[in-house]
Amino acid sequence: MSLMLKCTTLLVGLALAAPSFAQTLTLAPASPQPSGLKQGLAVDYAYYGVRSLKEAKGKLDRAKAGPPLQGLSYLDSDPGDKTMTSTSAEKVLAAISGYIKFDAPGTYDLEFISNDGLEASIGGQQVALFDGVHGCESAGVTTVQVPQAGWYEIEATYFQRKGTACLLMDWGQAGNMEPVPDSAFGYK
């Protein structure tokens, strides 16, 4: 096989393996709109070494509430640093819930970056899925339609196995991506 064909085959394989959400998803606003929210996101933690979201979900029934997350801006940690607000650096499972506020209706691009597995939904639509053990990498960009300004429910399952950890969310319109500010998140 020629080098050109090998490279083309590799690129096609990588494209097929990468998570992708090609269609625009319409999000459903929270109904009724919540009031009196605290800033951040609620999180429940459990501590088990898993390699997949399925395994993580099977263990999260034993999770206990942890200190709330400030938002979703947890940069790639140094080895030994605690994962988010948990009590451990490794073998961390998290069930994250709350709300995200969009200040204006329109079309938004969303990107989640995680180390390791992540499944996230906003307004009833799955917006990120990146299973397995991997470095701090993107789950891909998802385009969503926000029908009205306001709060939208957000839920996520996350796990970190070994080494470093990260969990980030970016958003933008017309290709201008930036980190979602912590002030855009709320929980009861």
From TrEMBL:
One Pfam family from the record: PA14
Keywords from the UniProt entry: Signal
Annotated signal peptide: 1-22
Domain (PA14): residue spans on this chain: 38-185
The protein's name in its UniProt record: PA14 domain-containing protein
